[in-house]
Amino acid sequence: MSITLNDQDRPELQKIIQEMADSGFVGVRLRVQDERGVWVGTAGVAELGQSAEPPVNGHVRIGSVTKTFTATLVLRLVAEGKIGLDTPADDYLPEFGLDRRITVRMLLQHTSGIFNFTGDYYPEYVPGIVWSGQAWVNDRFKTYQPEELVRLALTKPARFEPGTDWSYANTNYVLARLLIEKVTGRTYAEEMHRLILGPLALTGTVAPTTQTDLPEPHAHAYYRYEENGQEKTADVTRQNPSWISSGGDMISTPQDLHTFISALVGGKLLPTGLLAEMCTPESKVGYGLGVFVQETEGGGTVITHNGGHGGHAGLMYSTPDGGTTLTAAINYIDDADLSMGEAFQKATQRLVNEVFGNGRTESAQ
């Protein structure tokens, strides 16, 4: 189903998301806004075994899109003079004994070298907390404290000397959360509402910390695992996201993600200088401060962060001026083998090429 908020239909977009549903995704809700207007489409179902379509602007766990919100919150506090971007993180969080060379900027850019508490995949897998398989399904309502996650990570050797390389680590963003709470004296969720969610009226967005339920409406998410030699599929829509904390715990909607990213790149949340620093990528993988800066097929640029885990995923893309955005909520059947990973990447690339390709972002640079 598609809803076109102007006179243009977008059958090419509907075709892509329908093919996503046909390939195994449970439900897809896509929102595109550009010079042609706003287009919203859905494909698949809201719940396995049922016929109802996914809610057009339903809630979804956005995974690591959370990092862009968290980084923006830290930078808002930098603008308020409460945090120094190049100050050692140890100055704010001395209880962890962090390497004094690790700055706040390195946390946001994943250049700290700190171990990732959800596991280090390179050069060979080193386990962190349990976040997949039957054990996770059975224990998915457990509460982890942010300090617990950080201390687990710090028992592992650093990946590299601070500032000398890049390695994605959820630990960096849990430290950012604790930093926010330390300098403000308020919770991460309270500060998120004060500085971002409230001013932008993002009523569909939540920083849940330990909250297990999603607000209505929402599609369902699933996890496939093996028990006693038999394959089972569990509905994991309800779960306690404290295992990922501020590295990926937030809930949002495609509409709210559009409002957030367009406001962010449009200069409504950060001073010009800090926004420029946020969108200046390090050279290895093109990661700025909580965002990826990527080139498109047509030679343009998009500011983006995606995220997914436990059968939920969020997409968020924008041209640098906010004139064109692509946001989406996706639900699927996750598993320990990440079998949907390749399909997810291919489908995402097709959407980006369709919306931002062929030089469409050149005028926005």
Automatic annotation (TrEMBL):
GO molecular function ontology, one term from the record: carboxypeptidase activity
Pfam families (alphabetical): Beta-lactamase (PF00144)
Keywords: Carboxypeptidase, Hydrolase, Protease
Entry keyword Ribosomal protein: no
Annotated ranges, domain Beta-lactamase-related: 15-331
Annotated protein name in UniProt: D-alanyl-D-alanine carboxypeptidase
Lineage, broadest ranks: Bacteria, Bacillati, Actinomycetota, Actinomycetes, Streptosporangiales
